[in-house]
Amino acid sequence: MTRAEGYTAFVGYEHRKKYAQFFTPAAIAKFMVEWVAKGSSSKSVFDPAFGLGAFFENAPKGCEFSGCVVDP
């Protein structure tokens, strides 16, 4: 079971709708991180919708990663 599957089984649809939660599949997050990192010399990344951390898990080694979420 993925982290997103576990979360959606535990947290109801209305809560996820209230916070406009969408979980990026791991393969897409990996593609996006590699695409952005390839053209950048920056070692710092900010994710404004951290959620379950799909982008964090795929960030390059040595990356300074920070993020935030609205859902407590």
List keywords for this structure.
72 residues, alpha+beta, two-stranded parallel sheet
Note down, in words, how this protein is organized.
The protein is α+β, with helices and mostly antiparallel strands. The protein is 43% helix and 11% strand. It is built from four helices and two strands, in the order αααβαβ. The protein has helices spanning 3-10, 13-18, 26-38, 54-57, and strands at 44-47, 64-67. Strands 1-2 form a two-stranded parallel ribbon. Helix 4 (54-57) links the parallel strand 1 (44-47) and strand 2. The longest helix has 13 residues, at 26-38. It is elongated and about 40 Å long.
Give the arrangement of secondary structure elements:
Blueprint: H1 3-10, H2 13-18, H3 26-38, E1 44-47, H4 54-57, E2 64-67
Parallel strand pairs: 1-2
Over the alpha carbons, how many angstroms does the gyration radius reach?
13 Å
Helix % is: 40-55%
Query: What is the N-to-C succession of helices and strands?
Result: HHHEHE
Let me know the largest β-sheet. Answer: 2 strands, parallel
Task: Put the structure in a nutshell.
With 72 residues, the chain is α+β, with helices and mostly antiparallel strands. The chain has 4 helices and 2 strands; from the N terminus they run αααβαβ.
